[in-house]
Amino acid sequence: MQTIIGTDIQIAANLLEKEELVAIPTETVYGLAGNALSEVAVSKIYTAKNRPSFNPLILHVASLHEIEKYAIVDDISFLIASKLMPGPITLLLPKKQTVPDITTAGSNKVAIRIPNHPITLTLLKNLTFPLAAPSANPSGYISPTTAAHVFSGLEGKIQYILNGGATSIGLESTICEIKNNSILLHRAGAISAEELATLTGLEVKNSSTHATIKTPGQLKSHYAPKIPLIVGNIEEEISNHAGKNIAVISFKHNYANYAGVTCYPLSLQGNISEAANQLFATLRLVDTGNFDIIITEIFPNEGIGPAINDRLNRAQFLHK
Ligand code: TXA
Ligand code: MG
């Protein structure tokens, strides 16, 4: 199968109507989309990504009204949706019968979001069904933030990549769920715990310690480059790995003066959102270089910082 990168929303809509897959841009990362109500299309998503069948998919819709077609929306979730969507947040909600079991991997909950990207919002408004869309990467690898990233991972497996440019945020959406009058954070993202607490007046708990369900995205060894990655004190780790060909991914300082080091500061100005936006593209770049090891550090815990640290922690686990 030939994979084409283009900007034609009508081509994308026609393919999706025929239960084919299309990669779509969002503000977070690119998604691998198919008709969320079609078992045929959804099973193609699992196959193309080589994704374990127990790992459920996020529904993408264009409006709050549509969320209510597929899920039961409590008052707090409604507040979050009306204030923060379209945007980089996903709500985990009790699912309605309208959503096939294969899409939620048998779970009675469904994850839903309204992506904030003009092309994809237009596409969704032209369709009569929601789109199931996991990140458009082979399962376990780094999420794509450009159409070219999608192409490098899924060439030959999908017909069309809808090109919407580089994503503006660059990390996957925050996933949250209202439970027992508090907010469970299932995945950190651009919408921070503080922002959710301020908006709702509720306590925000990390789901790894409080959830009864385990979101597969919490599995470690996600987002992993092929080269070993270490999170730590950069200067110490450089000396621990003397003699190796080292890639350093730092927040704002430049470590290029150290022997054997090529340094990739993510934001020389120390802007955490810019750093988040550069992270996945930089990991991919470094992963195709001739390095023995990637050394990075703990990023400041402000704004999207916890989401960066979360992704780096999972990336290092595979090689420990
Ligand atoms: O920003 C994003 O959310 C991107 C873009 C494309 O929208 N999508 C994305 O999808 O990151 P994915 O499949 O790569 O990650 C979704 C996470 C997975 O960890 C999955 O396990 C979890 O959401 N999830 C989805 N539905 C769920 C459900 N019903 N119950 C628990 N976890 C769920
Ligand atoms: Mg993913």
General description of the model:
This protein has 320 residues and is an alpha/beta fold. It contains 11 helices and 15 strands. It has helices at residues 9-17, 39-49, 64-70, 75-84, 118-126, 147-154, 193-200, 207-210, 234-240, 272-287, 305-317; strands spanning 4-6, 22-24, 31-35, 58-60, 89-94, 109-113, 131-132, 160-162, 174-179, 182-187, 204-206, 229-231, 246-250, 261-265, 293-296. An 11-stranded mixed sheet has the order 1-8-2-3-7-4-6-5-9-10-11, sandwiched between helices. Strands 12-15-13-14 form a 4-stranded parallel sheet, with helices on both faces. The longest helix is centred in the last third of the chain and has 16 residues, at 272-287. It starts with a strand and ends with a helix. Mean pLDDT is 94; it is low at 209-213. The site of magnesium ion has 3 residues, from loops. Magnesium ion binds at residues 134-135, 143.
